[in-house]
Design goal:
- By secondary structure, the protein is of the alpha/beta class.
- It contains 16 helices and 14 strands.
- The strands form three sheets. The chain has an eight-stranded mixed sheet with strand order 4-3-2-1-5-6-7-8.
- β13, α13 and β14 form a beta-alpha-beta unit.
C-alpha cells in the first residue's frame, strides 16, 4: 500500500489528544506515554494553533495553546498541580494526585462537556481544517471521531504502537479486550495512520484488511531520547563493582522474565556465589504474571543476586543500563522495543530474541538468541560476565546511531 499524500495545505490547527497522559498522573510513564509527551513538546514548539483534548470520567476538556502549555508544565514536573476543587472529591477512586490534576484541567479548559455528554459539543470551538492527533491508544471511541468529523475539513490521525492484543492475546492485559473494536474504528474512520515501525504497519494492515478498510498510512520510527545518566541517583545498595545485567520494562508475561529467572536458578545450582552475576529487574509489576511475582517474593536469590527496582529515576535507570554488561531482552513480542534502542544509544550490549522489529531498528548490532534456546542465553550471559572487556565481546560494528524525533517529525508533520 502506498503512503499518504501530504494534506492539501497545512492544518489550520492541531488538536493533540492527551487523554492517556492525564490518566497516568501519579504513576510512572510507559513507553507509549513518553511518545505522547514527545508529541506534546514538539507541537508546542510549532507555530500553528494548538489545542489539547482530554476525555475523563468527569467529562471532556478542550484546552487552547496557553492551557496546553500550562498542562505540559505540570505533566513534566516543571510546575505543581493546584489544590483539588470540591467536585473532584466526588470521584472517590481518584488518587490525591488525580484529583489535583482533574481540578487543574477544569481550571485551564476553554470548553468542556459534562460527564456522559457527547464530545460533539466541543467541535464548534475548533477552527475548520483542524487535525486531531491521537498517539496514546486512548480515547478512540466513536465520540472523538464524531467530534472531529463535525469540524469542517477536520481530519483524524492515529498512531498505532502494536497489535499485540490481537496477535498474542495470551500476553495482553485484561483491559485490552476492546482493542479489536478500537482498531476497527480506526480502520473505518481515520484519515491517516502512523505506525512506529514497518513491522507494526504490516501487522496492523493485515488486521485492517479483515476489518474492512485500510486507511492511508506512514511508517516512522519513534525517536529515542535517553536521560543523562545520574549515578548519584542510584540506591547505595547497588554494587557497581560486580558484573551485572539488566532487564527493563513492565513485568508482564510477554517480557519473558521467567527465562532469566530459570537461568539464575541454574547459576545458583552450578556456580559458586562469587561467580554468579547480578540481575537488576527494572520495572513495575504488571498483570497475569503470578508465577513470576511469586518467584520475586520468595526466591533466596532476590536481594543477593537478583534485585527488583520499580521507582528509579530516569537518570538512575540510564546509569544502571550504561554500566551493565548487557541489557537482556527475551521478549516474545514487541511493537517497538524502546529499551533495546536506549541501551544501544548508551553503548551497552544487547542480547535479544530475534524479533523482526529489533532488526528493523538496530540491524545486527544486538546479539540475537532464540528464547527457545536457554542454553545459548546462559552461555552468552556467562561469557559477558566473565570477560575482561565485555563491550568488545559483543561489538558488531554499530555506531550508536538510533532513530531521532527530528527524523520522525520530518515524516509525520509533512502529512498531518
Amino acid at each position: 500500500m502506498t503512503g499518504p499524500r501530504p494534506a492539501e495545505g497545512p492544518p489550520a490547527a492541531r488538536l493533540l489528544d492527551l487523554t492517556r497522559l492525564m490518566s497516568r498522573v501519579g504513576r510512572g510513564w510507559s513507553g507509549v506515554d513518553r511518545v505522547e509527551a514527545a508529541y506534546l513538546r514538539r507541537l508546542l514548539s510549532r507555530p500553528e494553533p494548538l489545542f489539547a483534548l482530554v476525555n475523563t470520567g468527569r467529562g471532556a476538556f478542550l484546552l487552547d495553546r496557553a492551557g496546553t502549555g500550562a498542562l505540559s508544565d505540570r505533566l513534566h514536573g516543571h510546575a505543581p498541580w493546584g489544590r483539588p476543587d470540591p467536585v473532584s472529591f466526588l470521584f472517590r477512586k481518584q488518587s490525591p494526585a488525580g484529583r489535583a490534576a482533574l481540578s487543574d484541567l477544569a481550571r485551564l479548559a476553554v470548553a468542556r462537556t459534562g460527564r456522559h455528554r457527547p464530545l460533539m459539543a466541543l467541535a464548534r470551538h475548533l477552527p475548520a481544517n483542524t487535525a486531531w492527533i491521537n498517539v496514546g491508544h486512548a480515547n478512540l471511541g466513536a465520540g472523538a471521531f464524531d467530534m472531529i468529523g463535525a469540524v469542517p475539513g477536520g481530519r483524524a490521525t492515529v498512531l498505532i504502537h502494536d497489535t499485540i492484543p490481537l496477535d498474542h492475546p495470551e500476553f495482553s492485559s485484561p483491559g485490552a479486550a476492546d482493542f479489536r473494536d478500537r482498531l476497527q474504528r480506526v480502520a473505518r474512520r481515520a484519515d491517516l495512520v502512523i505506525y512506529n515501525s514497518k513491522q507494526t504497519r504490516i501487522a496492523a494492515e493485515r488486521w485492517m484488511t479483515r476489518l474492512g478498510r485500510v486507511p492511508p498510512g506512514i511508517s516512522a520510527l519513534l525517536g529515542v531520547e535517553v536521560a543523562p545518566p545520574r549515578p548519584r541517583d542510584l540506591p547505595d545498595a547497588i554494587d557497581l563493582s560486580r558484573p551485572f545485567f539488566v532487564i527493563l520494562g513492565t513485568i508482564e508475561p510477554r517480557k519473558n522474565h521467567r527465562l532469566l529467572f530459570h537461568i539464575w536458578d541454574g547459576f545458583a545450582e552450578t556456580l559458586a556465589a562469587e561467580q554468579i552475576p547480578d540481575l537488576h529487574v527494572i520495572g513495575r509489576r504488571g498483570w497475569a504474571n503470578e508465577e513470576v511475582f511469586a518467584w520475586l517474593d520468595i526466591s533466596p536469590l532476590v536481594g543477593r543476586h537478583v534485585h527488583e527496582w520499580n521507582d528509579l529515576s530516569d537518570g538512575a535507570v540510564s546509569a544502571l543500563v550504561q554500566r551493565a554488561r548487557a541489557l537482556l531482552m527475551p521478549s516474545f513480542a514487541e511493537g517497538f522495543g524502546l529499551p533495546v534502542a536506549e541501551a544501544h544509544a548508551l553503548g551497552t550490549p544487547v542480547i535479544a530474541n530475534p524479533l523482526p522489529v529489533f532488526r528493523e531498528i538496530l540491524g545486527n548490532n544486538p546479539v540475537y538468541a532464540d528464547v527457545d534456546d536457554m542454553y545459548s542465553w546462559r552461555q552468552l550471559i556467562l561469557e559477558l560476565s566473565q570477560a575482561e572487556k565485555p563491550r568488545q565481546t559483543v561489538a558488531t560494528g554499530g555506531t550508536g546511531k538510533v532513530p531521532t524525533w527530528q527524523e520522525h517529525f520530518n515524516l509525520v508533520l509533512r502529512v498531518t
